[in-house]
Amino acid sequence: MPPLKNIAFLINRSKEGAPDLGSRLMKLARSKGANVTTSDAFPVPRGYLEGRDACCVIGGDGTLLSAVEESSRSGVPLLGINRGSLGFLTTVAADEAVEEFNAVLEGNYTIARRSMLECRGVANGGRGIALNDVVIKEEKSGRLVPLGVHADGELVTDFLCDGLIFSTPTGSTAYNLSAGGPIIEPHAEVIAMTPICPHTLSNRAVIFHEKTRIRVNNPGATTRLAVALDGRPAFSLAPSEELAITLAGSKLPLIQNKNYSHFSVVRTKLGWIGGR
Asked: Looking at residue 120, what is its pLDDT?
């Protein structure tokens, strides 16, 4: 890959050590002749990544998720350096950051392109994209909510649950995993649907193929629904409205070390055995 010459930095200054690490990496980039800009704004301001070769995100997965929309719009890849907790997206550890960033500056990296979800309110025009997940819940009370799901026009079932999680393979290790959903290899072209605390114990996660067009409605027609994208409130739906969900037409570019191993990350983050 070509060396990086124009680099944007996104630094979460609330994360311990992130500002100092950002300063070290920017100094390293300048020593290699790169131009750098820096921001601590969340979400990333529109246009911030234009003309850049990459964006180095220093923080947690939430910090990286705040740059997803702008990255997907501009096509600028993200490099995540972890100063948060688990860090499934920000996979570069702080103690390895200088060495790995130096390799990336010199072009020793690959780009993984991750599937995203696109959703839209059929009637209200609300829309957005998500790298991890689209979550639908009752807007205010947190009570059980009836949710009807159709796939390509066919009824899947009517759920009574706390909500539904629609996840990409990338997001399968996020809220989906906490709710008992499956871990999915990140390059699979699928959508996972996992009910949150379903009233019917036989309700389980369902995997849809990449071309499935999903619609969710509220058959109870009495409750407003809240839609969250990657953990951030996006818009709400009136009782009569439907939500349409598909895989997005574009993918998110992520910079990775040439030796990146998804299951090595999973073993490390989840404490699985093997690979000693």
From this structure: 93
Question: Has residue 57 got a pLDDT over 70?
Answer: yes
Give the Cα separation of 131 and 118 in Å (integer): 9
Q: Residue 113 pLDDT > 80, yes or no?
A: yes
Q: Please list the active-site residues.
A: 61
237 and 126 together in one domain: yes
Q: Which domain holds residue 107?
A: 6-114+251-270
User: Mean pLDDT over residues 108-135, rounded?
Assistant: 92
Which of 13-17, 136-140, 193-197, 217-221: highest mean pLDDT?
193-197
Q: Is the pTM of this model over 0.70?
A: yes
CA angle 17, 70, 129 (to 5 degrees): 110
CATH number assigned to the domain comprising residue 258: 3.40.50.10330
Based on the domain organization, do 121 and 243 belong to the same domain? yes
- Give domain status of residue 275, yes or no: no
CB atoms within 10 A of CB 70: 21
Residue 20 φ then ψ, to 5°: -65, -45
